[in-house]
Amino acid sequence: MAAARTPVEPDDQVKRAVDIVVSGALLLVLAPVIAIAAAAVAGERTGPVLFAQERIGLHGKPFRIHKFRSMHPSSGGPEVTTAGDARVTRVGALLRKTKLDELPQLFDVLVGTMSLVGPRPEVARYVELWPEAERELILSVRPGITDPASVAFRNESEILAQQPDPERYYREVLLPQKVAIYAEYVRNRSLLGDLRVLAATAWAVVAQG
After folding, report:
1. 48-63 tens-digit pLDDT
2. Are β-strands 50-56 and 62-68 bridged in parallel, bridged antiparallel, or unpaired?
């Protein structure tokens, strides 16, 4: 699973510095929102406030990604989530729609397992489906909270809900498209490009809300 290590480029050092400053600032500014979201999740009494799951990160190293819990614990079912999924809680549906469930990942950015912008991290069994060359390329950078694929497939749960076999559709149709977008992002990444992705993500959340 591990990918070959590449030297840290100057731009990557700047990107890491930006990640630390921006994620730290956002955690301070959004502290009231984070507290309210945490209280809402806790109020449903469906399990722990935070959900942690092992994903594959930089250089193929597993790490734990964090989100506000939005589903009933131990509910089983497929890895992918569709619109109207019965496993999603009432508060969880709102958090998912507004992307507030992703806020705990700012801590993941701060500690260095994630970046603000980068290919979204997948679970190991999906990463194993990536072509070897693309896998090595994608895993050469930190995974992100958002990326161009997140914007392109912002309605992913609705798309999957229309399929007779959502998980198969994800593996055979959506995942290859995402891999192509991830690889394109890595090949052409820049700080200006990251700012554009963040702006597009914010707009997508507002427009969808």
Report:
1. 999 999 999 999 999 9
2. antiparallel
